[in-house]
Amino acid sequence: MRIAYISTDPGIPVFGCKGASIHVQEMLRAFLTKGAEITIFSPKIDDDPPADLAAVKCHRLPEVPKGNAAQRATHLMELNDSVRDVFEVADKMATPFDLIYERHALFAHAAMCYARSAEIPSVLEVNAPLIDEQMRHRSLDRVDDAILSTIHAFESANHIVAVSPEVADYVTLHGASDSQVQVIPNAVNPDRFPSAATFEGPFRIGFLGTLKPWHDLPLIAEAFAIVRQTIPDAELLIVGDGPERSSLEAQLKKLGILDATQFTGAVPADEVPTWLNKMHVGLATYRGSDSFYFSPLKLYEYMAAGLPVVISRVGNLQDVIVEGTIGLSVPPDDVQALADALIGLATAPNRAKTMGRAARDHVLATHTWDNVAERILKSAGVGQEPAYGETGW
Description:
This protein has 393 residues and is α/β, with parallel strands linked by helices. 41% of the residues lie in helices and 15% in strands.
C-alpha cells in the first residue's frame, strides 16, 4: 500500500514540535504500522525525521516565501501547480499511489482534484475551519479564492475526516455532502507514555501547548493565584511557548506568583511525557466567547500520562472526559470555578490519582492513532487487500 501524504501549510514543520507537527508524525507512524510505504510532500521539511520515521520518503515542495497576506496567498495558490506537477510525474510510476491523504490547508486543492481525476482513493483531514480561523485571528487576503479552493478540495475528496462535529459542520457548509464526512477525534500514541504520572512533590498545575489567545491563559493565572491562597506551595508548569508568553509572565508577576511558575519553552515531542510526569493535573481551558471546534491533543496526552484533567465546558469536551471519573469540567471564563476544581483535586490526592488512572485506561483503550488510521483506511477502502495486485496494475 503506497500512500502520498500532503501537507502544504507553511506554518507546520513536518518534523517539528508544534501540536500540528506531532499530529502529522503520529499519522505517519500509524500508517507505517499498517504496512504502508509513505511519501510526504510539504514545503516545510527542514528537520531530520525521528528514527522511527526514517522509512518515510520526503519530497520537499517549493518554499512559501514570507511576505504580506496578499503575497502569501498568491504563493499558496501557486503551490497547487507544484502539487499537480508531482502527481503528473507519479502517473508514470509502475506502482502508483493507492491513497492520497492530505492535511487540509488554506488555498490547497490540487491533490484532491488530481485524486478525483485519476480515480485514486483520497482522504482529506480537516482540523479546523481554516477560513474562519484565519479571518478571526490573523488576516486573509484573496478571500474568494480561499473559499473556491476549499470548495474544490471538499467536493473532490472521496472521504473527509473532521476532528470535531463543529469542523464537520464547516466542511458541509463548504460543499461536502454528509456521506463524505466522518468525525474522528484526535488520539495518542501509547508508546510515548509507557508509565503514568507519579504525583510527586508539591501540587503542580500543568498546561501543555502553544500559548495562543484561545487557551485563556489569563484565566489560568488568576485561578492559580486563588489556589495559592489555600495551597501555598502549589506550582504552575507551562510546557510550550507562543505569542502570549510575555503577557502571561507579566500577569503572573503582577499577581506575585511568577516565582512559583516554570516555563519550559518549546520542547521536543519525546520530552513531553517527562514534563507531564511532573504534573498533578492537566488544564485545557478555552474562552467562552470563542467558537470552539478543537480536538485538543493535549487532552489525550494528559490522560495517557495518567493525569486527571480540568476542562472548560465548551463544545463536546465533556463527552471526552466522563465527568467526575477521569476529569472535571467548569464553565468557561469562571475563575472561581476553575480554582475550586483545582483545590478539590489538591486536597483529595487519592481521588486525583484514581481519576488519573481511569483517564489513562480510557484513552489507551479507545483513542489511539492506530485505531484512527484503521478507521480511515477502512472508510477509504484501502489497505485491506492489495489495490492493484502484488506487482502493480
